[in-house]
Amino acid sequence: MKSNILIISDGNGVDTDFKKWPFYLKLLTTKTSIIINRSVIGASNEMMFLLLSEAVSKTKIDFCVMQWSIPNRVDVVLDEFWLEQAQKDLIYHFNIIENNEQQWWITSASSNQYIREYHDRYINYYQSQLRSQIFIMAAAELLRFNNIEFVFSLCYNLPFIEPNKKILQSYPWAWHKNNDGLSEFRIVSKFAQYDTGLPQPHSLIHLDWINTVLKPNCNFIKYEDNVYNHIESSLLKTCSK
Questions:
Q1: The CATH number of 3-71+124-228 is which of 3.90.1300.10, 2.40.10.120, 3.30.70.20, 3.40.50.1110?
Q2: What pLDDT, in 10s, does the model give residues 221-237?
Q3: How many CA atoms lie within 13 A of 35 on its CB side?
Q4: Which of 125, 180, 193, 203 is the most buried (most CB within 10 A)?
Q5: Left if phi > 0, otherwise alpha if psi is -120 to 50, otherwise beta: which for 197?
Q6: What are the strands, taking DSSP E only, across 69-130?
């Protein structure tokens, strides 16, 4: 029987104009696993925890990979006011999702005056780091309560700060260097020369991240080397055209 692997990330887990690592993980593990991808473009770490909570309550999950994002993001429950603000946003007007029977606006890097005021006036970066660490700890407890084996990773570098540093370090992490994420891996990947400088790394770097970082740090990600080599070779051919 195939196992269900839950994936939660931000835009690093969502296919846009190019494929991201959950797409390749599905190809690599198709014989053994079903990939359930709940990633959302621009998701805050709060939203990632809520996505996890909903998925665990509604779906049988055997394993989970969570790729935490930058701490200074905020998402809002839609009411009449926030719906109007979302609709006015020239870039993120589309980014509305449903979670636990509530509609949310995923604001990401919105330049909306009220979102910017929240970041600039009310919650500074240090406090957003502390909040993110609370969501990470809550996610670990929720996964353990439901007997779900998991590994955490990062989209971007996220330093751990006191008083929770030791607790956070005790969790299973997949990274090439402590506290570094996929964004930092793009520099050291063997395919770094293919990177285009877009917010998310090139597809080859996503694929390399699975093989170089995720698989060696994750007991439940399994595939044969020849399967990986075939996918890598095929992707390289499309890049050289």
A1: 3.40.50.1110
A2: 999 999 999 999 999 98
A3: 21
A4: 203
A5: left
A6: 75-77, 96-99, 102-106
